[in-house]
Amino acid sequence: MKRQFSLSEISEWISADKKIFGAAQSVVTDSRKITPGSLFVALEGERFDGHAYLAEALQKGAVAAVAHKRGNFPEEKVLFVGDTGRAYRAIARLHRIKEAPRMVGITGSVGKTSTKDMIAAVLASELYTLKTEANLNNQFGVPQTLLGLDGHQAAVVEMAMTAIGEIEELALTVLPDVGVVTNIGVSHMEKLGSRDNIFKAKMEILSGLREGSPLILNGDSDYLCGYENPHYRVIRYGLSGQNCNLTAEEIEEEGAGTSFVVCCEGRRTPVRIPAVGRHNVLNALAAWAVGECLGISPEHRAEALAACLPSGMRQRMVPWRGSTVVEDCYNAGPESMEAALTTLAGRPAMGKKYAALADMLELGELSLSAHRKVGRRAAELGLDGVFTTGEMGRVISDAAREAGAENARHFDTKEDMAAFLAGLLAPGDILWVKGSHGMALETMLQTLYARE
After folding, report:
1. In angstroms, rounded to a whole number, what is the distance separating the alpha carbons of residues 193 and 120?
2. Which tens digits make up the pLDDT trace of 136-179?
3. Residue 425 scores a pLDDT above 90
4. Dihedral (C-alpha) 440, 441, 442, 444: value to the nearest 10 degrees?
5. CA 18 → CA 10, 37, 57, distances in Å?
6. Which of 37, 81, 394, 414 is most buried, most CB within 10 Å of its CB?
7. What distances in angstroms separate CA 123 from CA 93, 176, 294, one per listed residue?
8. Which burial class, exposed, middle or buried, applies to 385 when counting CB atoms under 10 A from its CB (0-12, 13-18, 19+)?
9. Which has the closest alpha carbon to 205: 178, 237, 242?
């Protein structure tokens, strides 16, 4: 039976100015995706206003609309509310409650997307599972994800934020049965001002977590290793082994993958993931812990992790003219940047090891010191070359040279960097490319690959 959204139920749920009867086949916020029978929600953001398209949506066959502004459209089909963003989240929450999947909510400064993918893979080994796709992890994207629930037995929803209060709103929409916090870093320092505030913002996930529910924390994170809360079942994973319920031993990188032994509840289970770096082992441990909480067999967990490939441009290894390019352009912060450089330095290579780096964004007052630290770390690790672009990228290469790196160079443009790398890379070399998503290093890679 095709699912339907009761308009009368929604009218009451969002405290609309009136009640509309009937049913919608879908809930849509993009007027271009309207089909007959849709409910159109006119969202308003910094760069868009759905109210401008409300009349068009009704003309295309929307059965009703939700708005918080009056306009030139037939108001008998419009449910007026105080704020359509809040109403959209309320509709998504109602749908989540009615669908009732086993819900996992995940947040953290870095690593949450890769961890989300691993958790979803583990759950999908036994349960029909929905997960956050692309960057649908904000105030508008999370409700869109939840409205995609259609008979799913489980869901994994990623929650991001830029300000205090946003995770709370999302958690009250998602209502997770299991909460996961990957770490507390310095991303968003520019807006939040301190790690204490970042910690408070991330822990807002508790707002939607029922008392007694599992709260899975990275025990290697300084802000999470000692966190206790009697209202939740705190479970810690980590590589330090200190105060952790599950950990990994015998970690060995092999080609494009990493093998290790998961130690959990007195059991030891060999696992191999198609990703490199100790940070990815941590991500896998978080997924293992979720699987443990939701009753997924250890055998299925191990099989799922072995088949879970990195999505997007997250440490994807691409062979190019005999060398290996690691595409890691999705995001960057001090923690993930250091993890990438450390992983690169520790990898066996027939040739040389190079890092192509760009700015880490949204660090505020920490930006200068954080970029200098990355440059010094690259020099300490003895990489064969550190190449940068971007305003703060120059700080990285300057710091690397000051710390003794013999081959540190800055490029004014990504095109210049690509041209240089095309002439530099030789068979057996490894090039690790990393920067914040806003730096669009993928365009540099496109230029590089075009020189085939």
Report:
1. 33
2. 999 999 999 999 999 999 999 999 998 999 999 999 999 999 99
3. yes
4. 120
5. 11, 19, 20
6. 414
7. 22, 15, 8
8. buried
9. 178
